[in-house]
Amino acid sequence: MGLVWLSSWLNALYTMMFSSSGQISQDSGTVSDVINNLKKKIPVIPLSDGSYSSVDDGTIWLHSDGLNPRFDDHGPEAFPVLYAKLRTVSPALLCAAATVDNSCLGESVMGNLIRMLQRIGVQRVSAPEIVKVHIFPAISDDKITIGNKTLMIEYLSFVMSHCNQVVPPVTLKGDK
After folding, report:
1. Per-residue pLDDT tens digits for 142-152
2. Where are the domains of the chain?
3. Dihedrals φ, ψ of 46, to 5°?
């Protein structure tokens, strides 16, 4: 049905289940059943690699640096292998939410979508957290990076693109 429909559906579900103050509606048993089904049984979250998943299959991240639908040169297009390993929410879902306009109702579709994703269990992550929580542990584990030259190149490129300082060239023994 498409990502516009999915973002609208998640927005409507959030609006229906939770009041404007963020309190759970009267029938919290039904609400928790729906949330648990979305977490564990229904692969409803589109990932940046084009697949759909649920948080029960592993952590899903929402790139908080890219909450506006515009991704910079450090996004999934520049680092497809890294973002596939990260299991991030597809930026196309956020773009789809941006096209839906419920401003006459006084609600933010994008905000409701993000809040619903968080209720389902999606976790926010920024570029520095990607380096700290994902890349550094992966680089230190030979099983993850050995033999995967493309992944290692993307990891190192991502780290370098987020450094604020210029790293001096490394001189190896025997080099002059």
Report:
1. 777 677 888 88
2. 3-126
3. -75, 130
Both structure tokens of 97: 């939410």
96-117 per-position pLDDT tens digit: 888 776 555 545 888 889 999 9
* pLDDT tens sequence across 53-78: 999 998 899 977 555 444 455 677 78
Q: What's the token pair of residue 154?
A: 């993307």
Put simply, whether the predicted model's pTM sits higher than 0.70 gets the answer yes
Partners of 125 in beta bridges? 63
Integer angstrom CA distances of residue 169 from 45, 93, 151:
42, 41, 22
Q: How many whole angstroms separate alpha carbon 65 and alpha carbon 135? A: 17
- 3-state percent breakdown (helix, strand, coil) of the chain, nearest 5: 55, 10, 40
Distances (CA, A) of 51 to 47, 80, 84: 5, 13, 10
